[in-house]
Amino acid sequence: MHHQNQGMDSRNHAYDVDGGEGKGKLRRSNLSCRELCWLQMFAVLMFGVGIAGGILIGIYAYHAGPESDGSTQCPTLPPQGSQCGNAHSTPSPNVNPKEQDNNEHASGTLGECPTTNPVTGTRYESTVFAPLTTAEMYKAAKFLKDNGVVSTLNAPTSLFENFILYQWLDVPTKTAALDFLDNGGPKPQRHAKVTVQRGQELDIMEYRVGPLDSNVMTINSLNKPGDVQFNSRPYDGLEVGIMTQMLEKDMTTLAPLIAESFDGAKYPEDLVFNLFNGPPSTSGVDRDTRWVITYNGFKGADVDLIHILPLSGRVHNPGSNVSQWYTYDFHYLNQGPYRTASDLMNAYNRNEIRKVKLEKGYKDTTYDRIFPKRDSGQPYRENADRHGPRVYYPSGPRYTIDGTHVKWMDWSFDISGGQIRGPALFDIKFRNERILYELAVNDISLNYAMDSHSQNNIIYADATYGILGGLTPTTIMKGVDCPEHGTVLQTSFWLADTQLAYNMSSICVFEADGQDALWRHAGSSFEAGMRNRYLVVRVPTVIGNYDYTFEFDFYLDGKIFNYAKASGYIQASFWDEHDPKWPDKSRDAFGYRISDYMTGPIHDHMFGYKVDFDIIDRNNTFQVVKWKAGPALEALQTQNASITKAPEYFIYNETRYIEWEKMAQEKGIRKTPEQQFWLVVNEREKNKWGVERGYQIAPLQTGSQALINHPLLKALSFTKYHCAVTKRKEEEPTLTSIYDVNRMDNPQAYLDKHIDGESILDEDIVNWVTVGFLHVPIAEDMPMTVRVETGFLLKPFNFFDRTATFDMPQYTDTKDGSLKESEPLFDQCSEPKTHYCRFC
């Protein structure tokens, strides 16, 4: 206060400068005592008002105005680089953050951001590639029943019945589709492709049924009777149920062994069978199923392939006459074979074999071990009780969906796919120029290796079971697969067990914010950049214990990223601690010990894609650009063989250079230590600089097939290559047959068969791209495998004349102030309460 009074005194007295002998001294003006007192009181009052006003202004600035939610915000978006508000907006330590958030939202006055429904039309208005609807499936099924092709439309009860296994869209021929899309020709009518299991004739037939958009329909056979052996068919619920009933008698015989070995377990209260240890046959003529017993950790509510137990055997199950089926080849702790369950039980009672005895109470812990819930015994991580970042559209969605036709930022394409092969995109264009006719997931191959009678050399080809809804309906998880502002689309699938069609909310479309730079440069006189935003098409699917997510990301510069991601539960194997083969009790030759009685068997996941480029038009050429090193003269001679001496200005004799090769004939390629660029180009279409316009196929990190003489290498030959190029044919629509994994000795339709030496120069060609990863399960895969991913990039390669983003708003700021640009402004708004569509 002393200093304040002194300051006020000096401010509230008038001073002048003495010009006489008092020069250089201050002289006080003549004021009365009353005047001085009033001035002092006024000064104190004004000072108090100033202090109070300053506090109020500070609070206002701290909370960014009356419309703020407590965070640092501006009422409108300023040019990039400017600032507003106070950066330190941490809540008071005496205030509960959750309560504060609720209070602020309740009292805030911000309006919701504008939003519109991006879906503008029905699926039939603009596309010929839309997946089948449930109504179309029922129409096709009824027509087949009315014409005697199938014997039932109810849940089948006998393998002698003829019933439908699968249905999906029979995509029109490329010629017909392009005639409609490009030339205004007639719209191709819609047809279903239907797979029928015929228990009387003992074969599998495929039919083309339609047109579904007509009252006059026909049925056309797509294969000859007997071409597909009955024993090479996929598994279905009816067959699995029959085998399970057969094994119940054996479980009764083995009940003492089971109870003593597996903590008092009983069948069926505590145990279930896993009968999907394929393949059931390598010839397609016979059929033999391996089974293994496993704890029912989920009490029948889900698949538990973690708690595998060392009791296994076989069911001989060919044909449809189940009276001729029988069980045999019983094993316990890999000891056997025993012809019958009684033989095994007798050997067990006579102590002729090693035994295992799980500790008491173990079976009651299986659910807690594998159910993916938060560990309540652990405290939350710091700040885990606060919500993470969110993304929403301040100006509404910037994409539209007309049925299944999507448009976003000069990109357009049609979403399709069926329950067998998985998601597919058709007619992909950028700036009205076609880049791809088809980009589709075709198959997934898995091969397991483990020390197990029932599980060694398990081979799965997931298209056999159905990638997009064969065994299990898959729906989008809110806030996990799809952000709240995403658009959810449906696909349909046919379930053989019930003979019913089901809708699945299985496709998510949204625009994503990468929150990084698509490109940037900060120079001495300017800085400029573009924030990375892209459109996502995401499709999760469940195949037994594994979850896959397929994603197609479209970028502003013309790139397309394609991802395959895996999560879910591993398929484990029993760990026999006392097996004398394995002196190291932490691992065996096939993997690590990952839990009390489990090892994680090594396996791979190989994803096969069909990539049908149409760079401007149908006829393209495949080029390999080789990144090489060698003498300077050698580099020059790749372009001019007449050069005999390298110029003297080459400092070093060794240099790097590139060499071009046109692939003249169909071929399969593997990634090699020699670095290469794989290109698809249109040699008749050049950019401004005279270079063929094209796209690069660039695999991300990927595994390779290590097998050399294994039977699967023919039926699943796509796993041998990372890219194969063939001439496109309507009779070669996919890289596998869904039956070949069950007839590997005599496969009928596979990638190696497509590669038969035809010319691919300036032709309509297809690239079959395979990417994958090798999985060595580890402790961190228990109970849940955290996402593992692979994929490939499709990247413009001289397709444009320059960077293809300069028709978009961007950030630019020059040092002299001559140019300042930013993204469009928007009014500050709150996240809209968008409707989440799960079953629309």
From TrEMBL:
Topaquinone (TPQ) is generated by copper-dependent autoxidation of a specific tyrosyl residue. The chain crosses the membrane at residues 36-62. Its cofactor is Cu cation. It is an enzyme of class 1 (oxidoreductase). Contains 1 topaquinone per subunit. Keywords: Copper, Membrane, Metal-binding, Oxidoreductase, TPQ, Transmembrane, Transmembrane helix. Residues 69-97 have a biased composition (Polar residues). It comes from the Eukaryota. It holds the Pfam family Cu_amine_oxid. Residues 10-24 have a biased composition (Basic and acidic residues). Its EC number is 1.4.3.-. Residues 390-803 form the Copper amine oxidase catalytic domain. The keyword Phosphoprotein does not apply. InterPro entries: Cu_Am_Ox_Cu-bd (IPR049947), Cu_amine_oxidase (IPR000269), Cu_amine_oxidase_C (IPR015798), Cu_amine_oxidase_C_sf (IPR036460), Cu_amine_oxidase_N-reg (IPR016182). PANTHER family: AMINE OXIDASE, COPPER AMINE OXIDASE. Belongs to the copper/topaquinone oxidase family. This is Amine oxidase. It comes from Mya arenaria (Soft-shell clam). The lineage of its organism: Eukaryota, Metazoa, Spiralia, Lophotrochozoa, Mollusca.
